[in-house]
Amino acid sequence: MKRRDLLKYFSTIPVMGVLVGSLWPSFRASATPTAVGNTNLFEALGIRPIINARGTMTYLSGSLMTPEVMQAINATAHDFANMHEVMDKVGEKIAELLQCEAAMVTSGAACALTLGTAAAMTGMDEEKMKQLPHLPGPPKEVIIQKSHRYVFDQAVRSAGIQFVEVEGPEEMEKAINENTVMALFFNGAFSWYGIPDSISHEKFVEIAKKHKVASFIDAAADVPPAENLFKYQKMGFDMVTFSGGKMIRGPQSAGLLFGRKDLIEAAKRNFSPYESPIGRSMKVNKEEIFGMYVALKTYLEKDHAKEWDEWVAQTKRIASLVNPVPSVNSEMQVPEGPANVFPGLHISWDQGKVKITPGEVAEALRSGTPSIEIGSGDEGLRVAVVTLRPDQVDIVGQRIKEVLEQALA
Questions:
Q1: What does pTM read for this prediction?
Q2: Is position 5 within any domain?
Q3: The pLDDT of residue 271 is above 90
């Protein structure tokens, strides 16, 4: 393909995305071609496209970017820019959208955890920035509730801190000392473990402020509802992070860090494009920064009630397809929250009549054509409709029905 033909091809992508989005208002999915010229990259590289009925899992590439995001990425890919200016000016616009002091785009929420911790440790002290993750003297400490320890707290530890686990407000008060630099609240702890927080959000912030310790809340997967983007900063948390590549539907490798201006400025100073800070290896490109801004703006402007109704309708459609199988029961479920609060479908059956386990159904769907990823447990299947394109809803329902019917006694 000639260069001018290639450029002409790529210039059509945003228009195509917008047209497809107008045909699918409920999802506004990116239906951008996977081909370059006459080459389908999935086929050429031997990669199977997946129908994602499991949710915004990172290993399944998160979510699909909206046509508006794809257009922003394409529109900003053809010129150079000063990355300091991009970070600052896009951050200012995001802060306006979120009604907070300052904001920045990071390479995912995990990066935001590292940068926010680094900011709490160094402030604007450039010498300390150079020394991370090994500041001289006693280790710096971060307070965390015992039930809030989770796999992603490694992103916090990588800045060079050690955690101090507490249970209840009294223990938190006693644990804070001259080495304490931050207090971390994992917002999804209850969703993950089913264990109530031993310290409420409000009390956690109150104690942190009393001792002049920076408070940070990880709310990576906690939209919808959209109100959560404002809720925790209003509570008084100094720093907040959300993933960009989940339900906000920005670039999978982008995230948001926002809150107190001095801490966000320190986080930026610990980040690329500066050449030697701890966050240099976590750089985010200009296209993703612009794309994240557009994703957030689009998300805040959408009709969330309408979108919710469309998700509910999709669960009902899949249920209508699978329920005719003998003994099958389908029930729409919405997690209590705060993470991943959106409608999904739980499907169960009498395994004495339909002789197949949920895990075996999930494997059959995964290995079939098309390949479908779905959640499963001892009690049944869990179908996430929020990551399905409208044209995939019937496909998922029909394939589940087929696999179950084949296992009838």
A1: 0.89
A2: no
A3: yes
